[in-house]
Amino acid sequence: MIGPSPISVPRLLQRVGSLVRDTRDIVEERVSDDSIPSWAKARGWTTYLLSLGDDDVHRCEGQGLASRIERMAGAPQSLIELAREVHQILDEVPMREASASLLSVRRASPRKLSQLALLIDAAGPLIERSMRVVDVGSGRGSLSISLGSRFAKPVIGVELVEDRVRGAAKRALQGDVTFVHCDAVARGLGLQDRDLAMGLHACGELGDTLIREAIEAHADVALVTCCVQKVRGEARAPISRAGADEGLSLRRDVLGLANLSAREQGVETPIEQTMRAREARCALRLYLRERGIAVCAGDEMRGLNRRQAQRGPRELIAAALAKRGMAPATEPQLDEVIQRARDVFGKVRRLTLPRAMLGPVVELAVVLDRASALVEAGYAVQVLRLFAPEASPRNLVILAQGP
Length: 403
Prior knowledge:
Layout: H1 9-22, H2 24-28, H3 38-43, H4 46-51, H5 54-63, H6 65-68, H7 77-91, H8 110-122, H9 124-129, E1 132-136, H10 142-150, E2 155-159, H11 162-171, E3 177-181, H12 184-187, E4 195-203, H13 205-217, E5 220-226, E6 235-236, H14 241-245, E7 250-251, H15 252-255, H16 271-290, H17 313-323, H18 331-357, H19 359-376, E8 380-385, E9 396-401
Parallel strand pairs: 1-2, 1-4, 2-3, 4-5
Antiparallel strand pairs: 5-9, 6-7, 8-9
Helix pairs in contact: 1-19, 16-17, 16-18
């Protein structure tokens, strides 16, 4: 049995829904390279944001504007009040206290192993009562293999990428573990009564599929959400009645805000390196526009690996031009666009801070909508933070026991 919920899912969803309605203009209008967003003008925030020093900007990107603004001089009162509301909402979701021991799984990083251990520890009562565990979006099989080695019950890993299924099957040396190649969103998961549907970073609409099918099958749930923007349509519709009442239909680009987590150290690269890569992409956009090619943010990387931006603006522009069959840039052209990108991106970083602050709220809106669907179906539900942001900023878990 899972314990009582530390938060009221319906009440917190109402509070999140109210905040999303009040800031819909902010989350829906991206900060572009060449204009001030209308929401910053309307709220009188432009001058303040553009006046922020480099140290303040860096700290806000690492710790979050909501955590920093009370210590920053001259902030508009309306921005302070918004930051307080964001901070209070996010603080309502507690961190689960646990002392799980690290597991041993071949080819899994220490960061991944800590996530596996904490999820298995948190879901322990649900695992014990299940007849079968279905690992949704099993990837390379680390969670399924860990479950198979510790619990005497069938484990089925469901994964979209066929190469991962084959590799995982070779690594599964203990227990009753099976891996299935399947597009679960299109074909379904085949859940049964007394199953436990688990997902460690089940991306986008795969998480919605897990929740819907678990409710239909009366299966229990242990889900850590990830990449909520990975939906096949232009928007994600709420799956709960409460989410629909709160108007929590969110466009795909708005859902992408959930990935803008404030942290001192990026998961893959240091934050400074991430910002240099974004500045390089800004330089590429500016250069392409000068050559008569209209590109929105993100379009500049068409045909390129995003990691190429980490090599700096000169190499990125050269690679992009070659990919598009265009003549190379001259040194004077590169010098000019790199300097202009430095100025433009400095403004973008500052103006993006309020929008980035709302990213975790967008993610929480999706998680609470899923949790509300389970509550409406009679489940006992907990929503918690499962591990520290250093392990993964995608750390919200839903634990749900069926009626």
